[in-house]
Amino acid sequence: MFSKILVANRGEIALRVIRSAKELGLKTVAVYSEPDKSSLHTMMADEKICIGPGKAAESYLSIPNIMSAAEITKADAIHPGYGFLAENPRFPEICESSGITFIGPPAYIMRLMGDKNKARQAMKRAKLPVIPGSDQIIDDLNEANRIAEKIGFPVILKAASGGGGKGLRIVRSSAKLEEQFAIAQGEAKAAFGNSALYLEKYFVAARHIEIQVAGDKKGKVMAFAERECSIQRKHQKLIEETPSPFVDDRFRKKIIKAVEEAAHSIEYQSLGTFEFLVDEKKRFYFMEANTRIQVEHPVTEMVYGIDLIREQINLAAGENLSFSHDLDMNGHSLECRINAEDAKTFLPSPGKIDFLVLPGGTGVRVDTAAYCGWHIPPDYDSLIAKVVAIAPSRMEAIAKMRTALEMTTVVGIKTNIPLHLELMSNSDFIKGDYNIQFMERYLTKSQDQDTKN
User: Fold this and answer.
1) Measured between alpha carbons, how far is 18 from 11 in angstroms, rounded to an integer?
2) What's the pTM?
3) Active site residue ranges
């Protein structure tokens, strides 16, 4: 086991990693940009070091700056969190060449699964169903149109190196393909430095289901029960839960077995998540794999009573996977992502938090870096907290979440808590009757109602 972990991230995920590292008796180093000088993760780590200005490209995305910080502090391991450098295969390669342990999958896995087209081909070989679409990267509009006509509109264009909804465009007719193709290429180039696209069938009423996996360096792989992630706006998740109200035990066993076989076929190591679209007949199609810890990992931790970050650290140190299929899932867990944004317009709301009250009590967990007096910088993602609830049943978990949200008070900035409270009282959500189109319909209905009023 290494002795000191540098956390190459910020916000709540940096705090989350620091907590697990401290429980393992490890020293921690926080890196921060100039606007993050007073951020909570810098106060909770054993050491802290500034790595540049607010612009992410010059701080949290700067490998030379982060490696210099590791050298100065004599850190012998680096945890990337999620976002920023977490899925950049050059990062673990540079760590390895510097004699520093990267807490995550090896570079070859990140390179394979980070390229969505290569990942599709690998999953096909592993006999995992993939969404109908292009077998190779498309850089020609005529080829895109030929494939789209073959599989039928609507289709979706995706950046081959993408994620987080960037470089992603839904095309509902041939007349719109040329325009959307150019826009998707431009977005992909701007976000990832790579304009390569691929094309898939777009399922209108599908569910977004993901499976958490963990693998050790000895070849043992385990998959966990599903997370339901269909409540999302512009491909950004808002609410996650496990188990899914849509999934039965037979389907769960089937998809877990398929994911374990696929992960084993590519010798998957560390933590990762395989994401799927699932149609009304419970046919599942592989979308992508994320080679990192996910934002929504707490709901899996809650129902299984485990610490995934701790396991990730141990796996990086060469320890055997400590989980087995004897691990039981207990209860129902929900997570609401609290963003610093206007609940109606979704515009960011950076600024100072003048007053803050966070919920607590049995079955409630809050992962956050927010505190009273903190200035939320405009430079980064608007996520400020994750409120997580667990209860014996889904209805009890919803009631517990509603109460937790009602007891959360944030003064000085706007948040999307009012939207989450509306969703926790929505009859379709309560019945579990929703899919990836839910928020689009919900927001359209809300806007129509506002117009009438």
Assistant:
1) 11
2) 0.92
3) 292
